Amino acid sequence: MSLVQRLARPAILALPPVDIAGAPLPGTVRLDANENPYLPLVQGQPGVNRYPDPQPDALRRRMADLYGVAPDQLWVTRGSDDAIDLLLRTFCEAGVDKVGIVEPTFSAYAQFARIQGAGVITARLGEGFTFDGDAVITAMQPERPKLLFLCTPNNPTGSPVDPADVRRIAVALPDTIVIADEAYGEFSDAQSLAAECGKIENLVVLRTLSKAYGLAGARIGCSIGSRELIALIARVSPPYPLPVPSITAAIDALGPERMPIHRQRIATLLEQRALLADQLRAVDDIQSVREGGNFLFLEVTNPADLARRLAAAAVRVRFRPNAASGGVRVTIGTDEENAALLAVFGIAAPASSRRADVIRDTKETRIVLSIDLDRPEPRHIDSGIPFYDHMLDQVAAHGGFGLTLACTGDVAIDPHHSIEDIAIALGTALRQALGDKRGIGRFGFVLPMDETEAHVLIDLSGRPFAKFEGSFDAPAVGDLPTQMVPHIFRSLADSMGAAIHVRVTGDNDHHKVEACFKAFGRALRQGLAIEGNGSVLPSTKGML
Fold first, then answer.
1. Phi then psi for 395, rounded to 5 degrees?
2. Cβ-contact 249, 215 below 8 angstroms
3. Are 477 and 510 in contact (CB under 8 A)?
4. pLDDT digits (tens), the chain, 544 positions
5. SS3 letters across 474-488
6. Closest residue by Cα to residue 283 from 301, 269, 307
7. Which of 477, 360, 478, 364 lies closest to 423, judged by CA?
8. Taking the alpha carbons of 395, 397, 402, 405 in that order, is the dihedral positive or negative?
9. Are 148 and 123 in contact (CB under 8 A)?
10. Which residues have CB under 8 Å from 528's CB, separation 6+?
11. DSSP 8-state assignment for residue 206
């Protein structure tokens, strides 16, 4: 008898597969699910009159690829909370079985266990909230819990859990399913244990799209385990657990063109976490600051006074007295949100970066773009058109700003749509990042470059106008059609709300095209630069 068969509730083992209509099949007349046949009277939500696929194949496969496992080793759930509940209902008999936790930790483990009627066995984190694998084994071995939840890194303390400790605990507790909850795994240096599920029979890993991928409202997570365990969980899962909008949002968010932005955002959150931690460590009222996940765990001397000051400033954090008498968990937010927190402690935050994120999806292209006008890095560009990548990188490099851009487009047919839509997205991002344009130079210009003369004049006026003077003999430079070059600057002018004048002369079309983009970047650098204290609007009209 396998481990899953030994540990599962007999009633669950006896359950037949769920009897439902199943996934919609294209090309068939669907009269088997008692649905309303008419489209919903809601804009932007086609298909919600039909039941969704109980386990949407495209999403399941995409998440399996993301976490490095086979699709039949993964069950998509309504966030990782749902995964916790499914495991408890599958394996824990009310009034008989127990689960183990390591306190202080995520409160849902004990809460869901008690709802199921299971007992709760606790071990404790060690001195300084360090994880002690030996102490966990000592606490759990006599009690033999059916499930043991290990949050790695731990919520709320941020404590790391060495994967070697998880493996060791799984070996020491062969009749316990050890669940590594990696909700914050993307913010940790520790290697995920997902690929070891199935190889280690009593190991389960939980993941979620709520944290690193910004889908907390969509409620998408998963359980990863052996094929036998996942098949059993499927019997317990509700018939249609995932709403159509959530499925669509998750598939969109995990598209290949989105992944570079996710990586950049994770890096930014980690950088901001470290910066915020350093600033808060200098506060007298804060005894300790620990970093973990996308949050900080503070121990403060007077939590009641801090609660009063935070409430007055409309800043919400989570007080965790079960973890420590003055325990406070603080999520890393945007620059503005972090500044609001620091202000409660009397710390002046640096000026917010001029940033913007733009998503542009059409029938021909899917584009995601992130720009930071106040930092020269990172620059990662993948348009699907290598020479265009090089030109956009020149714009960002000479403009002195960070640019991350990825596009999936119909370049196999023609690069026109990708080239145009990227220019529109870039111009839109520049306009959004500039905000009210207070403090900028507004005007930019450059003069000759090498044997080619490229003159670019920019006025960030809010009034779009484009003028391009120059011609090209070659039909393309690299894989960039030269006829698109004037069109790029027209699209930039329209989407930026800027007047852009370009004049180029020379003998070599490669040099002429490159000079246009380099000169545009240099002109942007002048126009975007903050002058003085950044408070003056560069217009005698009083607005732009």
1. -60, -50
2. yes
3. yes
4. 899 999 999 999 999 888 888 777 788 898 888 999 998 888 878 788 989 988 999 999 999 999 999 999 999 999 999 999 999 999 999 999 999 999 999 999 999 999 999 999 999 999 999 999 999 999 999 999 999 999 999 999 999 999 999 999 999 999 999 999 999 999 999 999 999 999 999 999 999 999 999 999 999 999 999 999 999 999 999 989 999 999 999 999 999 999 999 999 999 999 999 999 999 999 999 999 999 999 999 999 999 999 999 999 999 999 999 888 899 999 999 999 999 999 999 998 877 789 999 999 999 999 999 999 999 999 999 999 999 999 999 999 999 999 999 999 999 999 999 999 999 999 999 999 988 776 666 677 776 666 788 999 998 888 899 999 999 999 999 999 999 999 999 999 999 999 999 999 998 999 999 999 999 999 999 888 877 555 544 554 454 5
5. CCEECCEECCHHHHH
6. 301
7. 360
8. positive
9. no
10. 373, 399, 400, 401, 434, 440, 441, 444, 460
11. E
- Rounded to two decimals, what is the model's pTM? 0.90
- What are the C-alpha distances in Å from 539 to residues 195, 427, 463, 544? 59, 21, 13, 7
Whether residue 246 contacts residue 210, with contact meaning beta carbons closer than 8 Å, is answered with no
- C-beta of residue 145 within 8 angstroms of C-beta of residue 98: yes
In this structure, are strands 98-103 and 147-151 parallel, antiparallel, or unpaired?
parallel
Q: Which residue has the tokens 């499914």?
A: 86
H helix runs in 92-129, sequence order = 108-116
* Structural contact between residues 512 and 455, judged by C-beta atoms closer than 8 angstroms: no
Looking up tokens 């930071």, which residue turns up?
372
- What's the Cα-to-Cα distance from 455 to each of 8, 34, 477, 485, rounded to whole Å? 74, 67, 20, 15
Q: Of the candidates 69, 17, 513, 4, which has an alpha carbon nearest to the alpha carbon of residue 236?
A: 17
Q: Tell me the C-alpha distance between 423 and 492, whole Å.
A: 5
End-to-end CA distance of the chain, in Å? 74
In 186-318, alpha helices (H):
227-236, 244-253, 259-281, 303-312
What SS3 state is found at 99? strand
CA distance linking residue 99 with residue 120, whole number of Å: 5
Q: β-pairing, 365-372 with 443-446?
A: unpaired
Cα–Cα dist 54/285, whole Å: 51
Measured over the CA atoms of residue 315, residue 318, residue 321 and residue 323, the dihedral's sign is: negative
Q: Where are the alpha helices (DSSP H) in 254-327?
A: 259-281, 303-312
Q: Which amino acid is at 340?
A: A
Q: Which helix (H) or strand (E) holds 286?
A: strand 286-292
**Contact between 183 and 210 (Cβ < 8 Å):** yes
Do 90 and 177 meet the contact criterion of CB atoms below 8 Å apart?
A: no
